[in-house]
Fold these 4 entries.
Entry 1:
Amino acid sequence: MENKTTEFSFVLNVSKINGVGVFATHAISKGTKLNLFWERGRSLKIVPKAFLKYCIEDGKQYACATNFGRMSVGWYLNHSKTPNAFHKNYLYFANRNIKVGEEILIDYDTL
């Protein structure tokens, strides 16, 4: 079981929950940081209004894709009331051990 993730740790695949989901390519230990995003927050002033509905806002900035034609796998996370990952300050972590091939899930209500 690994305690780090890289750009090769996740793939997109068909989800039984909803459309497309994010799946682990190797076992991941509880507490491991999940490197699902490579975007940084953007100032509210520079995000075009038409794109705001695709972003997550925290009052100071928006988190959104830097290139909507090539989005990070993290934008495809599906929702669960019993997730295996959580976020803190735009960083994501495994809240339990995650198996190879398991879908990475978060609780949308905590965003």
Entry 2:
Amino acid sequence: MIRDDLSDKLIPLTRGPTYEYAAEVFCKILDEKRLLGGTGCIKGDFWCVCFSEAPISKLSQILAEPMAHGMRYKPFGVMVDKEWLFKLGGRPVIYQPDSEFALLHDKQKFRHVRYEPTNYIDYTWEREWRIHDDELSLDPEATTVVVPSRDWERRILQPHEDKVWRRAAVGMGGAGIPKSVIKPLWHFITLGDLGVSIPEE
């Protein structure tokens, strides 16, 4: 059965005060082919890499939500198969009161997210998944790059391809090779082409 509220993909979006800042962070992710974990807002200071299970068609709702310090998610991210992350140990978080944190097995405590709707503490809209690790390597063949528009695709892809070309040239002893023979490393998808509403800056 096909449902528009479920997805077999997971997406971590980049956060930042501006599109330019988020894009700079995002380009570093692509250059290094990895996602770095963090401990922010994770009880127990577990290092995790975080994703959203929300279907790509619903991302406009996530992009519109204000986050900590007034920042919002920005429309730059990568998309991976849920099954792939699950095999690596990724799991959906467990939304529950902090009082139930101690009831979790130590190996499952990284999944805890505070949930107290009577106190307006509700992050269930993020539909979060986590993998307990300090970083996660990305395979370009199994990863789709998500950007807001074709213009941003060009702005991100061109410098990245230039770097790949320069590395290839160095590897060949500085021999000149045409950029046209450099195969794009990443597959891009643009939210604008999918009709996803992108909040203004």
Entry 3:
Amino acid sequence: MIEEQFQLEKMRTNAKITQAEMAVRLGVSQSQVSRYEQDPDNVLSGVLKKWQQICGELASVKGLEMEDPRVELQARIKLMTDYATVEPQPGNVPTKTAPVNADGFLAGVYIAAKKPKVGVFGQFDAGKSRLINVLLGGDRLPTGYQPATSVVCLLRHVNDKPSWQAEDVWLMSKGFNLDMADDQAHCLKHKMFAGGYESLSQYGTHKGAGKQHKAFAATVYVDSPLLLAADLVDLPGYGHSDDDKDRAEMAQKMVDVLIYASQATGFMDQNDLNYLSVLMRNLPVVEDSNGRVAPLRNMLVVATHAHHIVQPGGLNEILDAASLRSYKHLDNAITDRKLQAGAPITLGDFRNRMFTFSADDSRIRDAFEQDVKDLLVNAVPQSTLRRVNTHVLLAKAEATGSCDRWITGLQAALDEREKAQAEITAIKEGEPSRLRKKKAHQQKINGLIDNFANESNVLIANTFVDRTSALAIEAMIKRRYDNKKEAQQLAAAYLVDSLQKSINDGVKVKANQLGEEIEVFLDGYGPAIDKAALQAGGWDFNARVAFMSAISGLGTIGALAAWASIAAAGSNLGAYILLGQVVGWLSSIGISLGGAGSVMTFVSAIGGPITLGIALAVGVVLAIFSLFGDSWQTKLSKKIHEGLVKQQAERQMCDGVTKYWADTKSAFEIAVVKTEEAYQSKLKSLYTLAFTTKREEIAAELKFAKETHAFFVGMPWRATPN
């Protein structure tokens, strides 16, 4: 043999593989790898061949090459961050806290500019980890036909690794939030194990899970150009275990770009379509009515292991057939998407989002890779810049406006103190009347919530009567399906998805009605004086911001998410933009301040307590039946009806809406208490300003307020056309 073939250590280091990683790939101990390298002449030919394959495979896949598309945006944000170091300080001013500050301003900007997350979903045998490895260049994630990944892997660029995290891999316990990978306290709380990439094979796979208490997630830092543009999230495959399903569902609302992988053989079967329906409803809308972004631009559906399809034209035929079948089955999700985007989605648009992939043949994956690259280098950065631009302009306007109101109030307290005292006295004298009205309105809203809960259960009962009888199901089957096999695979899932949509749409109407009533309730927090009075100009209490801040700290809020979307879309949009906690929370439920049309709302954010779990269960039940005879539609409809009864689908949906409205009521009560506390705190501060603060102290605070106003006017940002 050629001498170089025996330079095992050099071969391994050139491929950037550690001894520990090589040991995992070979299935031997690390000490055995060391002995191979020390005595290569006695290495068995089979081991040598596998060694060469491992190193050669990794060296030949370079991954997607791209420049960092976020350089300009990061430079512009850094300019603001540096400018913030000269923020005016209160000094000897009694009121140490300004109503606005640079930290709050920048917190919202950072959220608006956050690096996008690309989530890779699919069934356990779809080859998701292999696809990610090819995109990154190198084998960082465990792969295999059997389900390998058992944790949610958040892959980030090595430059993003926090200074306090020395290792490339941290395994995390359940409860870890993927959006808090930079939060040291949160990460340390959930840290289970730290190590190199080999840790994923040892503790992050089904094969190795027994070696450690089961990890739930992992943060993985990799030196790959693609990760300059986006974080990647590798999900456990659906269909292996309930734990994996929970992990996958946890992450489905946290991604900005969706890659759905399905084997080319059996591409987009009934389970794939069920999962994709849910994922589409949680995917941010990036397209808009002006056509700047193509429909479904942030969704890619990929036929993996495509090199197994050898017949001429076979891959295109597979994609064509799957797109037609998917477009028909997903019409409810597509309709929701159309309404959100305000733009049509045609069959051709859907077909354009389907691609082929093979790790072994770059020609098969070329179109997919080029689309990913264009998405991450052009489309997403442009969308992010538009969002940040809108956010910064709104934040500057709100910050300076808040300072104007602050200055007005201080000037009134300084120049016309007696009038200011009279005004605040009038407000306090009107408090008993306001509190009585508030209590009555609060009781009215609680009654509305109870009524909506009852009406929602009636809606479910009526919907099941109308849509789930054997005759109704048979009519649906005859209307939608000519093919027996397709009907057997898809009819049950389509029915339950339609039930969910119908019920959720009805619940959303009630949620929006509640939101409108809460808006009226919050109007009652206006100052009880003439709007033209001096003190009114300095009144800077925003009940909606206080209410929003209260619910943003709660875990479940039910229909109050509908109110949040109404409030964020209204004229008070800018009022929330200076509160990083609120901006982050709105983003987490699918409401983006500064997104397309100013507010971008997911269907899931504004109502809809029903999930897809029943559809999957019914689909599995039906898959075991064989249907024969001319009246196959009748037999199938009876089986679907029996499956729904067996799964207690109606009861599960009723339980869902009952909890939804109970969560709504609980969150409303908590938010009302916290909003009232904030209101009383504002009254107290105004009273102190008007009656007990010395003139020289007011003058000092006025100077501080004017300096703060000038600071935000000068916040550096070059506006760009949206």
Entry 4:
Amino acid sequence: MCRAHAPGADRWAVEGSGRRVSALRRWLGFAPPSDTSEDAVVRRRVVTLAWPVVIEGLLQTAIGVVDTFFVAKVSEEALAGVGTALQLVFIMIVVMSAVSIGASVLVAQAVGAGENDRARGLAKQSLTLGALVTIPMSVLGVAFARPAIDLFGVEPAVAEIGASYWRITSLLAFGMTGMYVASAVLRGAGNTKISMQSAILANIINAVAAWLLIFGNLGFPELGADGSAWAAASGRIAAFGVMLVVLFRPATIISVRGWFGWRPRLATVRRVLRIGAPAATEELAFSLSLAVLTVLVAMLGTQALAAQRIAFNALSLAFLPGFGVALAASALVGQSVGARDPRFGRLATNAAGQYATVWMSLIGVIYFLAATPIMRAFSDDPAVIATGAAALRALAVSQPIWAITMVWAGALRGTGNATFPLVVNAIWSWSVIPICWVMITLLDYGLGGVWLVYAITGIAPVIVFRARINRDRHLGAAAADLATRSPAANPGPAD
């Protein structure tokens, strides 16, 4: 017998479903933007800070893309060797983030509070600390290049190329590490355009030098993969030089001109590392997990390694919008903390999450639909193309998930809380490794299956991060409502 259909039941069900969707969107910070002038100001500030960072990141990634394109023409072993060495380069960058992330947050908080003298002192201390950290990394990198590469279990020919690339990169590491610290200091003060302009110069120098040195054009020595290392280092040193010139100008809000303030101060170093060290450990944990993943992928053969190298380049490009918006969110939240304006920080966090999700989702669609043509641009090997295309499609699915995670972790760092993102992301990135091992060794899945695991498991950090943000004393709804009733000063200048 058919049960009678209650009048209006469908309407109530739809309304109830709509309320649940609206509640979920509010919880995620994805509610439609308000028409208030403050919300519009926040969105403009996010875009103003983010777009130069995105372009800068695109240009930084372009260095790797250009070099990969050239090195791929040398040999499959050269491509795999450089890809293996770049895992160590990522670790070096991660170590420097202990300085750069801490410096950016503290400078942002000082600028937001209107304490420019303190911001200038923090800039000097950050550059000094960056130099002190770089020296031992360079020495160890040069001295133990081959043993470090051998840890990845690659073939001898690949290891020889990778060790030589890593040795050159370590020798000239001051350009890369200095560039990251200087860029972070400028970003904390709200100036992201100088770093972008410096990256343009780095790309021009790298592209020309790589073409000359990898293939020996115009009478230059033919250095193969080593030419790629020399070219990339030359471009980064030039970019660092440009940023130093700007930082030494008296008119710069965080000018480092003058002898006073350069000697390391333990109290300042501790403050920088209190924020930066957990953030660096988080990035290091993720990079090390990718290094272990590279060891697992090596079990699939050199072709899979080469495919992963190309996929990593694509991943770097896909991360750029999220990375840029996350850094903008971190800087704006830091300035809101300094100005004691939690409502501004919450608005910035929500707006940044929305922008990053939309932009990275669009990139994901492109990667999914054009996976094979993208791989063909870097390799002529059918096996490399097929393997890499499967990996790209898996990466495409994960883009909106990673976008949200990156922005919300960046917002929490802006409050000075870098420990929570460390714990969440470290647990996630390492818990995935055993699953990937099972996928490769027991279930016989290829590279695409491995990266699909990352996409599926990435949902967990999203839930955890949002729950933490909603009850944070700087970003939570309660703090924002209190600030609405007792408005504070607007955070410092965006640029």
